[in-house]
């Protein structure tokens, strides 16, 4: 089983995130760094999928209106969360 919310609190947890990509227009790498403490996390929730296949299956549709949309999950459910 994974860590609990209390484990994060007791450890005073902070996660550091580094995302690196490539800008095709200027032909240069781009990076973004940030961090999150346990106080900024929302426990027992998951993001909703933002991508789906088109009806004909030829394209991927990115639904930006679902950005940051999340749903509460039940802990101990069959899917292991």
Description:
By secondary structure, the protein is mainly beta. It has two domains: 1-41, no CATH class; 44-81, no CATH class. The chain is 7% helix and 40% strand. The chain contains one helix and six strands. Strands 1-2 form a two-stranded antiparallel sheet. A two-stranded antiparallel ribbon has the order 3-6. The longest helix is centred in the first third of the chain and has 6 residues, at 5-10. The radius of gyration is 18 Å and the shape is flat. The N and C termini lie close together (9 Å). The mean pLDDT is 90.
Tag the structure with descriptive keywords.
81 residues; mainly beta; 2 domains; two-stranded antiparallel ribbon; 6 strands
Query: Quick check: average pLDDT?
Result: 90
Biggest beta sheet summary: 2 strands, antiparallel
Number of domains: 2
What's the tally of helices? Answer: 1
Unreliable spans are none
Number-wise, the strands total 6
Q: Please provide the ordered H/E string of secondary-structure elements.
A: HEEEEEE
How large a portion of the residues is in β-strands, by DSSP E? Answer: 35-45%
Radius of gyration over alpha carbons? 18 Å
In short:
The chain has 1 helix and 6 strands; from the N terminus they run H-E-E-E-E-E-E. With 81 residues, it is mainly β.
Question: What is the topology?
Answer:
Layout (H helix, E strand, L loop, with lengths): L4 H6 L3 E10 L4 E10 L7 E3 L3 E3 L6 E3 L7 E3 L9
Antiparallel strand pairs: 1-2, 3-6, 4-5
């Amino acid at each position: 089983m994974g860590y609990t919310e209390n484990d994060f609190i007791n450890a005073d947890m902070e996660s550091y995130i580094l995302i690196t990509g490539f800008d095709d227009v200027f032909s240069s790498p781009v990076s973004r760094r940030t961090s999150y403490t346990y106080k900024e996390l929302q426990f027992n929730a998951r993001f909703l999928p933002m991508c789906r296949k088109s009806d004909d299956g030829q394209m991927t549709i990115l639904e930006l209106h679902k950005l940051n949309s999340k749903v509460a999950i039940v802990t101990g459910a069959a899917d292991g969360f």
